[in-house]
Design a protein that fits this description.
By secondary structure, the chain is α+β, with helices and mostly antiparallel strands. It contains 42 helices and 16 strands. A hairpin with a 4-residue loop joins strand 9 (719-725) and strand 10 (730-738). Helix 31 packs antiparallel against helix 32.
Length: 922
């Protein structure tokens, strides 16, 4: 028994208490007695569990918590076993076959247990199962199940265990972890001895290969990045399973029983062993708290849990970082340490000549060892296409080599030898201000950062070894920094490295189909290295109280000259970082058909070259946020903004009047209306007001004309049309209906009920009292046919709702209850009413926590305020919604009184927060 565990459970007293139940000669197998035994065990387990949780909250020792839980479980199983053989299935003269060794295997075999873990047991028999043994095992299992435990179990004899372990690596690993619990100990010792001699001996390389392959498969399922913002604490990269895999391999190959024995085996230094134990303790603390908090076996550290776990572990807000962000940064740093330990461990295996490659590869490696190619003035050598150091002092002799090795690896397209990575990690103290300010070192770093080969991979290696954060301390500050929101999928450093990778792929031409504009203009950019440096630094100011764009610009002003950029390059770099969010914001939340939007953005962009740089940086940035964040619709918006702005900056924007532009647009459409009578054409062009002619492109004007003509000829005043747009990733739904104030609100409500996510809306009124509304909803299916059918279902619901056949408020309320707000997030609601963003419209921007039915409530409120919506632009960034409406009053004028603006803000604040007015809800 581990010292300090004596007070957790008094097994002797528990045995006496259970024995008292049968002291009068009562049958221990009697159902009434069994019920009393079970009640006592439940009481003990509940008390000890609560006590262990309290101890965990006080000392925050994760490994100790897991060991305490395991110890209590051990004692409960021993007590059940003893009660079974002494009072339920007692045998006066047991035969040689009536023996059982109860054995803990798997994680339980390591004497560690999470609150919600399975209990893995092996009931070891000498020969074959006997009726007595079967009854005892069944009694134990049913008692454990009735206690509410999940039990994984097997019943085998020694020969069966050995035979199965030879062919099944999972069983072999379970036996590797086997620990005697109770019963016949000589039987267990026989298994342990024979397993070591007959299975483990001389099969180390085979086991290592299987376990590393198993790890690779697991990470493919979980996600290969250790920087996912909702990580799996057990199975994810850098989690507990990675540490356990290392120890399984160590235990198997080096024949050790405890992690500290790895020091004597030369695998880990004492400092690295301390690091191993620190990582293990932290991960166990997180896992145990997750199980306690949820009262189940929860392994995914979701947003909903992160705040609570941070509080349980004692994190507080500090230096501009929220408690939850500090906790998650600690988690990701630990995950990185686990990766470092994996690297060190693999290097030790190579030193011990563990070969799992084919014979031919081993032969090639022997040849390269005899005649290695040297690099970097003899400091480095190439071994089997991997760069390695030629001696233990190469970095001490010249610290610049800590940067040069990465530049050479990139230049020669070499992987890193584990020995080199280990030495780099152990040489980080050599990176000081002298090295950081060394022109040669910075030139080498810039070569890596702007490489045309694979800069992301080499920079990632620099980050994993700690060199990147030490050489650029400002980057080190954002290493493992999590952004507590649903929009960003990765930590800040991971996002920055992925954005470099995205830019590299665009430059190589591999993204031409997805990103035609960025791919087309990048080769013409005058200074490509500015883009790489800007992407490397664009979010480097995060985690501080100020706007990260402003902080990042200041950092760029300092680092630009250090990296060797000219004053002019540094000026552009600072501008790019300060404005790196502007193009995305304008594209997704402003009306791109409004000339004021384009004029204002052109004033920000300043020149065609800066416009190109900003477009490419914006695309790479969004694509690096996470899977699916950049889509065809965002790409289309960015392209539209670029194409509309470029003529302004090139000095080619037309100066013709508004009336001349409207007349030209009408003539352009008339020429395309083949098969129409002249009178029919004339009547049609008079249907639309000037904003329609100026804001809609020609292909859509032609589609609208044919759609309206067909509806009029059939006598319909309510019609819809569906057009899937695969490249943009949206489906366009056009609605022709009698104009009324709640039209867009009804459409939005129908889409909410149908589960269709509106991303944009254009609203036009015809001269004969009809409304022509075009909405764009996110695409759900890859196949156009499937998407057409889905769009038709949505449009059918819209028609039904407009015809009064759907009670939208009740249905939306049910949707909201089925999908409540994400509890983990609290965002302030903000309403901006602005008259300077458009010449003709008042622009209302509303932002806050997204929820089902939000757009429906907002558009209803705008209608209640007697406002006409000309266009709506809907954007979501994870849990945050940003909805922008271009509106006028009922007379087509801007809202320009302070009293009216205040009323709009107050009403929309209430609607955003789900507080509907009685009149509006009726």
């Amino acid at each position: 028994m581990k010292k300090g565990f004596e007070t957790l459970i008094d097994a002797a007293a528990l045995r006496r208490r259970l024995t008292a139940l049968v002291d009068g000669g009562a049958d221990g197998g009697n159902p009434a007695i069994r019920a009393q035994v079970l009640a006592i065990l439940k009481e003990i387990r509940s008390q000890t569990r609560a006590e262990i949780e309290a101890m965990m909250l006080k000392d925050r020792r994760g490994s100790l918590c897991a060991e305490r839980l395991s110890h209590v479980q051990d004692e409960i199983i021993r007590v059940i076993y003893d009660f079974a053989i002494h009072h339920v299935y007692r045998v006066k003269n047991p035969s040689a076959a009536e023996r059982i060794a109860v054995t803990a295997v798997g994680g339980y075999g390591r004497s560690t247990l999470a609150p919600g873990s399975d209990i893995d047991l092996l009931f070891l028999l000498p020969y074959k199962q006997t009726p007595w043994g079967e009854s005892v095992i069944e009694y134990i299992l049913y008692m454990l199940w009735d206690l509410g435990l999940k039990v994984g179990h097997a019943t085998r004899n020694v020969d069966e265990c050995l035979r199965l372990s030879r062919s099944d690596m999972t069983i072999r690993t379970a036996l590797l972890e086997a620990r005697f619990l109770w019963g016949d100990e000589p039987l267990f010792r026989d298994l342990a001895r024979r397993f070591d001699e007959e299975v483990v001996r001389n099969t180390g390389p085979e086991y290592i290969a299987a376990k590393l392959a198993e790890r690779d498969d697991r990470l493919k399922r979980q996600g290969t990045s250790r920087y996912l913002v909702e990580p799996n604490i057990k199975e994810g990269k850098g989690g507990l399973r990675d540490l356990q895999t290392l120890f399984w391999i160590a235990k198997y190959f080096y024949r050790v029983r405890r992690p500290e024995e790895l020091i004597a085996a030369g695998v880990l230094s004492r400092a690295e062993y301390v690091r191993f134990k620190r990582c293990e303790d932290f991960l166990w603390a997180v896992r145990c708290n997750m199980h306690f908090a949820t009262n189940r076996s929860e392994e995914r550290l979701s947003f909903d849990l992160q705040r609570e776990i941070a509080q349980r572990l004692g994190y507080v807000e500090r230096a501009g970082m929220r408690a939850v962000e500090r906790f998650m940064k600690h988690y990701f740093l630990v995950a990185k340490d686990v990766g470092d330990l994996t690297l060190i461990f693999c290097a030790a295996l190579e030193e011990q000549h563990v070969k799992i490659a084919p014979v031919l590869n081993r032969f090639i490696k022997r040849l390269t060892k005899r005649h290695p190619k040297t690099l970097g003035s003899g400091a480095f050598m190439v071994e089997n296409d991997r760069i390695n150091v030629t001696g233990p002092d190469v970095f001490k002799q010249d610290p610049i080599r800590l940067i040069r090795i990465f530049q050479l690896a990139d230049k020669e397209n070499l992987a890193f030898h584990p020995d080199a990575m280990k030495l780099i990690t152990r040489s980080l103290s050599l990176i000081d201000d002298d090295l950081r300010n060394n022109p040669e070192a910075n030139s080498l770093f810039l070569d890596v950062l702007t490489s045309k080969n694979d800069p992301e991979t080499v920079l990632r290696r620099m980050n994993e070894t700690g060199v990147l954060g030490r050489f650029v301390p400002e980057f080190g500050r954002v290493v493992a920094m999590m952004q507590f929101n649903m929009y960003h999928h990765y930590t800040v450093d991971e996002h920055l490295l992925r954005s470099i990778g995205e830019l590299s792929e665009i430059e190589k031409g591999t993204r031409k189909t997805e990103l035609p504009l960025a791919s087309a203009i990048l080769p013409g950019v005058q200074n490509r290295r500015l883009l790489y440096v800007a992407l490397f630094l664009h979010d480097i100011g995060k985690g501080r109280p100020e706007d990260h764009s402003v902080v990042g610009a200041r950092i760029a002003a300092k680092l630009g000259p250090r990296f060797g950029l000219t004053p002019a390059e540094t000026d552009t770099l600072v501008w790019l970082i300060e404005k790196h969010l502007v193009m995305s914001m304008v594209a997704t939340s402003r009306d791109l058909n409004d000339r004021k939007t384009i004029r204002d953005f052109a004033a920000v962009a300043q020149s065609p070259e800066r416009l190109k740089l900003l477009l490419i940086l914006t695309v790479a940035d969004i694509r690096a946020v996470g899977p699916g964040v950049f889509n065809g619709w965002k790409g289309q918006l960015l392209r539209t903004l670029y194409y509309e702005t470029e003529p302004y900056l090139a000095g080619g924007h037309s100066q013709i009047t508004r009336d001349q532009r409207v007349a030209a647009a009408k003539r352009e459409l008339v020429e395309k209306l083949d098969g129409w009578d002249p009178e029919e054409r004339e009547d049609y062009v008079e249907r639309h007001y000037a904003p329609y002619w100026l804001r809609v492109d020609l292909p859509r004007k032609i589609e609208h004309a044919q759609f309206i003509r067909a509806a009029v000829r059939s006598g319909r005043k309510l019609a819809t049309n569906v057009t899937p747009r695969a490249f943009e990733g949206v489906t366009e739904i056009t609605v022709l209906a009698s104009d009324h104030p709640r039209l867009l609100s009804t459409i939005a409500g129908a889409c909410a009920v149908a589960g269709a996510n509106i991303v944009d809306a254009q609203i036009y009124t015809t001269t004969d009292g009809l409304a022509l509304d075009t909405i764009f909803v996110s695409r759900e299916f890859a196949d156009d046919g499937d998407e057409q059918r889905r769009g038709s279902r949505v449009s059918g619901l819209i028609e039904k709702a407009l015809a009064g056949g759907e009670r939208l408020p009740e249905q939306i309320e049910r949707k909201a209850l089925a999908k409540p707000r994400v509890k983990a997030f609290q965002l302030p609601t903000d309403v901006i009413v602005n008259n300077s963003w458009s010449d003709r419209f008042t622009v209302i921007e509303v932002s806050g926590l997204d929820r089902p039915g939000l757009l429906y409530d907002l558009t209803r409120a705008i209608s209640d305020l007697s406002l006409n919506i000309a266009s709506a632009h809907i954007a979501t960034f994870g849990e945050r919604a940003v909805d922008v409406f271009y509106v006028t009053d009922l007379f087509g004028q801007k809202v320009e009184t302070r009293v009216r603006e205040k009323a709009i803000r107050e009403r929309l604040m209430r609607s955003f927060d789900g507080k509907r007015d009685v009149k509006a809800a009726s």
